[in-house]
Here is the input.
Amino acid sequence: MEGRPVAVIECPEEIPCNPCETACPQGAIQIGNPITRRPRLDAARCTGCGLCVAACPGLAIFLVKEEADTAEVTFPYEFLPLPQVGDVVTAVGREGQPLGAARVVAVRQVRTSDGTWLVTLAVPRALSSEVRGMRRL
Amino acid sequence: MRVEEHPILGPLPKTETVWIEVDGKKIPARAGEPIAAALLAAGIRVFRTTHRRGEPRGPFCAVGRCTDCVMTVDGVPNVRTCVTPVREGMKIETQRGLGRWPELK
Amino acid sequence: MAGAEVTEVAVVGGGPAGLSAALAARQAGAKVIVVDENAAPGGQLRKQIHKFFGSKEHHAGRRGFRIAEELVAACREQGVELWTDTLAYGIFDHTLGIVRGGTASTLAARSIVLATGASENALAFPGCTLPGVMGAGAAQTFINLHRVLPGRRALIVGAGNVGLIITYQLLQAGAEVLGVVEAAPRIGGYAVHAAKIRRAGVPIYTRHTVLNAAGHGELEEVTIAALDENGWPIAGSERTFAIDLLCLAVGLTPLTELAWQAGCLFEYCGPLGGHVPLHSEDMETTVPGLFVAGDMAGVEEASTALEEGRLAGLAAAAYAGYRSPNLEEEKAAARERLQALRSGPFGEGRYLAHEEIVRRWLKWRDAR
Here is the structure.
């Protein structure tokens, strides 16, 4: 999936929840019946719009865009103060461990946000599957 | 220790300030909030001391069930401060033990 | 004592279960009064700022306090009377003893729904009574409802969903959370809730317990220790944190006083938080015309409380003489939504527990 952002869903348990499926305008996320089934993503249909990222109550969906050497990772963010585009922040992994400095390339809200921001960091491609957040400012 | 800004709830809504008196000291409170919230915001954490051992107690449940936060309010002991709203000029005292009711006339 | 009041359906508790019951009963045509001891209706939904799980029908993806606002607005619009600052202290046949705005009176009804919720459990250890040790839900009430931080540096006990969610919300309110302590070998709550706080840098200490809390007059430090396979603290593993807030998220117990007083039959049910009143599929207790819903009928979640409330409200209205034209369809739909929330590895235990409670109720009915 080079060159465009695609959702990465990290939802490991069978919990009764399907807002990601409802939020996706492309029908790219499927849960079906029963709603405890884990979401399956049809990556070919994902446009990287981010509606599912903000809709997920578990904050378990990310967007990853990979280029030749670099990548962009988008994650939901619900803390203050908000980072600004151009800021250099500390990217963190799933355990909150620092993974180096990263530049903020986007901070936005979408229709499903209701307070949830989507923050995008530019990171080395090698870290695209490691970076999942940033240290709070 | 007010939560002035909040990522989901937004800035602290403006409300009228009412003044209450705690052990003789005036502190500000937000109109309509429970006494316990005003006290915690002012950094007051000990609400009463126990009957036998004089041990300190503060809010535990904050929903009116546990009675750990009771104080003497306007002379009436055992008032649950977590569910009793502040009023202008309210006189609140740290309660010692079971508290004392005002003399009956 | 002020004059006695009469209504068709009375609901005790204006949280998700009570408001949902009131709305359903009102929509069926009954005159409904909700009594709630708080200054505003909405119950614990008002402090829930996270987005709900479930499906669209369960308000999934919406934040709890917004669901509360909508429910209250719908109740008002439909003509449900909401009596706040009204404490129900007793139940005498079909009459509630109440104190409204400081004045004692009574409220008689053809049917009554008890939706009184649950209270947080405590945990005993040296220093557990120090000011600064409080229920996790209490801390949540202070930060989200009253906008006060009850402490700046916190430790949480219990890695169920409540402990994990409140950890996250304390961070959102600007507190520092040094860790979550869990005696079990595994995290009890959803992995996605745990992942949120881990990304935020909060460690989760499984197989650990609180040894003691200490401080001069108020909480200043807490010592935790690792547990061996028999649950005993391992010498040398102690670790002390300088904190001013210790939140206990160690479960809830149904608030059932009124149901006991009314003479309902009970059953002890661990997965539902303690003694719960036997009830039918329609949420009717063993006292005719007395219904239950929400956490007081077995501790679960706000989303299940909404559905149980709907069932109880429909049945209470029918008992009062207002049969909804689509009663059976509406009940079937609510049950289906409930079952969806009680499915999967996290919900199954609660599903089976509720089934058992209903089976016992049927047994009681058949023996009559």
User: Anything to note?
Assistant: Chain C has a mean pLDDT of 97. Residues 122-248 of chain C form a domain with the FAD/NAD(P)-binding domain fold (CATH 3.50.50.60). The longest helix of chain C spans residues 344-367.
